[in-house]
Amino acid sequence: MKIIPLSEGTFTIDKTKLFVPFDDTKDSLHTRSAGSLLVEIQPFVVITSKDILLLDTGLGFEKNGTLQLHQNLMDAGINPSEVTKVLMSHLHKDHAGAVGIEREGLGGRLSLPDATYYLQRTELAFAFQKGFPSFITGELVCLQNSEQVVLLEGNGTIDDYIHYEITGAHSPNHQVFWIKENGETIFYGADDAPQLQQMKHRFAAKYDYNGKKAMELRQQWWEKGEKEKWTFLFYHDVKNAVWSF
């Protein structure tokens, strides 16, 4: 399997839940508001023998009229129409900002025209119940009543090689994925396992829905991953997007 990180850049985020671009050549974390976290925003493409998979969709920013996600895909040699499956861990705005796209005269539609989107039914309902600032529901409307969307119920398997489990750790309906092919396992923990250092140290985050559970899951995944030689994908890690044992 081939892994392609699609970095959208580094940002700081504080209690306002606004993502502010951060350039380490000229910016200092000390000048940002108290409690600011430094994070990467980084969807992933995984190319398998069956699919071109996209794992989460990023912030949804546009540059010069082009969705950054689309540009990053094209820079990687992938036409957005070639993506076959989109695996959504959850619908927080930094993971789901580019699920859809809106153009004058065309209205809103899903941003990957030939892909099937997979997300938890309970997550979609919760996003509209909870709303702003964690969820931007106007960007998620295109997920409702679409033939391109498969609403999952709990744990299961997609096409015999993508396993998903709902954890309820970072957020109430958050899910994680294992992609297994030819003896190789790629694990994507999204915000349950966002950075390498959180895997190596016991750390319960106050911003998690269930920080203790997230901490315990990270420990379990790390130990099992080391034993079984998993490859980990870290959505928010500034330096370590991919880590293999």
Description:
The structure is a single chain. This protein has a single domain (2-244), classed as Ribonuclease Z/Hydroxyacylglutathione hydrolase-like (Metallo-beta-lactamase, Chain A), CATH 3.60.15. It has helices at 68-75, 93-96, 121-130, 196-200, 211-228, and strands spanning 2-5, 10-13, 19-21, 37-40, 44-47, 52-55, 62-63, 66-67, 85-87, 100-103, 107-110, 116-120, 149-152, 156-158, 162-166, 175-181, 184-188, 231-233, 242-244. The chain is α+β, with helices and mostly antiparallel strands and 245 residues long. A hairpin with a 2-residue loop joins strand 7 and strand 8. Strands 1-5-6-9-12-13 form a 6-stranded mixed beta sheet. The protein contains 5 helices and 19 strands. The two termini are 15 Å apart.
Task: List its salient traits.
245 residues, alpha+beta, Metallo-beta-lactamase, Chain A
Summarize the structure.
This protein is an alpha+beta fold.
List the helices and strands and how they pair.
Layout: E1 2-5, E2 10-13, E3 19-21, E4 37-40, E5 44-47, E6 52-55, E7 62-63, E8 66-67, H1 68-75, E9 85-87, H2 93-96, E10 100-103, E11 107-110, E12 116-120, H3 121-130, E13 149-152, E14 156-158, E15 162-166, E16 175-181, E17 184-188, H4 196-200, H5 211-228, E18 231-233, E19 242-244
Parallel strand pairs: 6-9, 9-12, 12-13, 17-18
Antiparallel strand pairs: 1-5, 2-3, 2-4, 5-6, 7-8, 10-11, 14-15, 15-16, 16-17, 18-19
- Using DSSP, what is the number of strands? 19
CATH C-level name? Alpha Beta
Characterize the largest beta sheet: strand count, sense, and whether it forms a barrel: 6 strands, mixed
Provide the helix percentage. 10-25%
Low-confidence stretches at least 5 residues in length (pLDDT < 50)?
Answer: none
Strand content: 25-35%
